[in-house]
């Protein structure tokens, strides 16, 4: 089959690899029809993490079931399914508590697994013609009859729509509250969109890319351009000096300041200062432990100064981690099905698989207008 394979830092190629196949009785085999490039793929692409060359990337996948293992009894051949990026067994202590991002079975020794991801198990990704889905009955979300028509909406259920929603949950957001979101990438925009759907009184979105800020404004949020002045002061100005009730981190430790200088701790400390005393902070932007094998081990650190003093003194709360996609994706699927949510508003480019390296290059450069790339391996 054709697949997008990781070769090394900023080096991905589309090449022929052995077909994905049913390997265990509980597996499902999917013919991938949509698969996104994600900001999380850039942790590997930019060399912040160590990944062996040859691994197929892609954890935001949707497609048609073409084969099932002998122990699969809920999912059927022909079903259109969206695959949560978390691979989970469905039976361990964490899965039973709906914490599927931290499944204890699929990646022994640590927690949580994903398709095509460094440090998250040996699984191949879905930027390919075929994808093997372990524990298929648990890890497939069946889609309704409008699956084809709304494919660019439903594919966002694999990761970024539930992840954005998760950030608002981690922050403890309630209807009527004000929210500040750091980052207007795909995840930040999905977070801001979730806060709007959940009835926030005011959603402020911080970034410096005009095209991304325009999208935030289009969905009813207040764009905050941090190249025009301190984002903390701009948030305080818009919240009567109190700070926002809730804050969401949707950037991760690759954060830059508005001048382009790497500042892994910047968004965390800005959040502490722009959220009100006793407010909540949800962190879905990725912060990984220091990886000695990474291409750049000086600045991509797992440990960095965090303003614990202000955080403690303000009595704030914080929640972190991978999104447990399954906790939300049925409900978010229903919002899409009934027309209450249309997350495809962030899609800027749809490309065939063989143009994926171009998609990576532009998305990585944050080129104007390259907000979210959907790849279609079926052409
Ligand atoms: P992205 O890189 O496209 O977007 C990040 C945005 O943050 C960019 O627009 C950038 O300009 C902006 N930014 C950089 N520094 C900033 C700063 N100091 N203040 C404000 N904005 C700043 O990536 P994305 O796809 O939106 O993903 C964002 C993060 O979410 C990544 O770390 C990704 O790995 C993570 N993620 C986490 C989960 C999860 O389950 N927790 C799932 C998906 C993605
Ligand atoms: Zn993703």
TrEMBL record:
It comes from Acrocarpospora corrugata. Keywords: Metal-binding, NAD, Zinc. Belongs to the zinc-containing alcohol dehydrogenase family. InterPro entries: ADH-like_C, ADH-like_N, GroES-like_sf, NAD(P)-bd_dom_sf. Residues 186-316 form the Alcohol dehydrogenase-like C-terminal domain. This is Aldehyde dehydrogenase. GO terms for molecular function: metal ion binding. Its cofactor is Zn(2+). Residues 25-137 form the Alcohol dehydrogenase-like N-terminal domain.
